[in-house]
Amino acid sequence: MANSISDQPMPQHHCRPPELAVIVPTYQEADMVDEVVRRVDAVLQGIAWELVFVDDDSPDGTSDRIRAIARQDPRVRLVQRIGRRGLSSACIEGMMSSAAPFLAVMDGDLQHDETLLPKMLEVIKAENLDIVVGSRYVSGGGMGDWNARRQSMSRFATRIGQYLIHADLQDPMSGFFLVRASVVQGCVRRLSGVGFKILLDIFAEAEQPLRFRELPFTFRARESGSSKLDNAVLWEYLLMLTQKLIGPVIPVRFIAFSAIGGLGVFVHMAVLWPMLTLLGTGAFLISQTAATLVAMTSNFFLNNILTYRDMRLRGRQLIWGWLSFVAACSVGALANVGIANYLFQGGHSGWFLSALAGILVGAVWNYAVTAVYTWKR
Ligand code: GDD
Ligand code: MN
To answer: Taking every annotated instance into account, which residue ranges of this chain make up the domain Glycosyltransferase 2-like (predicted)?
Structure first.
């Protein structure tokens, strides 16, 4: 009887595979998800849809809430990611979890206007487009209650974005769009997944210039909870832009890691100098050791919140993380000195190039080893 599934009467929504998947990334939106489902259901009457929440294991129990809804309604699905953070990568994973030919991405805090969804679907099909973007900057659209600082930040980011993708897109920073699944599938391996600018990434990486249209909407005020996009988002945006500019040759994390390493030299000196003035040069060994430890520690924490923001270690993980970081970098320092010394003493290169080669080998070692042992889980 194994193949008699089709004999069984099925509920209506089982019969039609979804034409449209609405991907909703969530972090700490437990109070919002019921309303999101209710509104999507109301507005997509007559369309075969599914709703995919991608939740990064929010401590407020968002995932449990979504699971409870999904038990009642099979059109609602959940991807619960553990130990990961990041808006872009959440959207990508949600999109890749669906077989629907059309994919929409929409925020889970009701700030995007879900009533635009049917129009977006209609327009993408009627005009045979690749993507339809919900836009705050075309006539009829608006910004809601953003403060001046955030508005000017957004305008600045928008300029850079437009320059980057060479497309006359008024709102490349929008997180609200509806796209053909084939477009995403065609470029998904090139998407950086860093930060929160998934739309920009798709435009930059699509196989062909995208046929698009922008539809106006007004960015609603947030009813409860708070924006998760703090100042560090600007840093992530910079990381993504850097990644686009240098391409896949050098990983952008390595650039960030090296920049922080360079900063570590200043931290080192800032500890060493006062210690020597206080304790005298007789205390060089102890001072140098202390300065090294402090610099390593500050580098560890900076890398943890900047370079590895999306897989940040917290709580007790910090202990193992710090230990492995210090261990790896100590070996890196030995390799650095060893190689520089070998090159210099052997007469292979002058002091400057010898030192540079040592630093480079040490940096690559530190980066590679900590990427595997400190931040990879
Ligand atoms: N899974 C996951 N992981 N979701 C996240 C994360 C994360 O790390 N960070 C934020 N989200 C979810 C939020 O729960 C919300 O549903 C949505 O992503 C947007 O996050 P907000 O924190 O509400 O962003 P915002 O209102 O400040 O920013 C909006 O404006 C941008 C335009 O400048 C968002 O709409 C962006 O999508 C948009 O690009
Ligand atoms: Mn929001």
So the answer is: 22-184
The answer to whether the CB of 261 is under 6 A from ligand 1 is no
Calpha distance 78→23 (Å, rounded): 10
Amino acid occupying residue 79: V
Q: What is the pLDDT of residues 27-68, one digit of tens each?
A: 999 999 999 999 999 999 999 999 999 999 999 999 999 999
Q: How far apart are CA 86 and CA 176, in angstroms?
A: 16
Given a cut of 80, is residue 112 above it in pLDDT?
A: yes
Q: How far apart are CA 6 and CA 15, in angstroms?
A: 10
Q: 199: closest CA among 253, 133, 256, 267?
A: 133
β-bridge partners, 104: 22, 178
Q: 177 or 86: which carries more pLDDT confidence?
A: 177
326 compared with 253, residue with greater pLDDT: 326
Strand order in the sheet with 131-135: 76-80, 49-55, 20-26, 102-105, 177-180, 131-135, 212-216
What's the confidence (pLDDT) of residue 2? Answer: 45
pLDDT computed for residue 352 by the predictor: 84
Give the number of whichever ligand sits closest to the CA of residue 231: 1
**55: CB partners within 8 A, 6+ apart:** 25, 26, 27, 29, 62, 63, 66, 78, 79, 80, 81
Q: What is the mean pLDDT of the chain?
A: 88
20 close to 47: Cβ distance less than 8 angstroms: yes
Quick count: other Cβ atoms within 10 Å of Cβ 73?
Answer: 13
How many Cα atoms are found within 13 Å in the side-chain-facing hemisphere of 237? 20
272 lines ligand 1 (CB under 6 A): no
Any atom of ligand 1 within 6 Å of the Cβ of 87: yes
**pLDDT given for residue 348 in this prediction:** 84
Phi-psi region of 33 (alpha: psi -120 to 50; beta: other; left: phi over 0): alpha
Give 181-209 pLDDT, tens digit per residue: 999 999 999 888 776 789 988 998 999 99
CA Rg, the chain, in Å? 25
Give the integer Cα–Cα distance in Å for 368 and 363. Answer: 8
CA of 82 to the centre of ligand 1 (A): 18
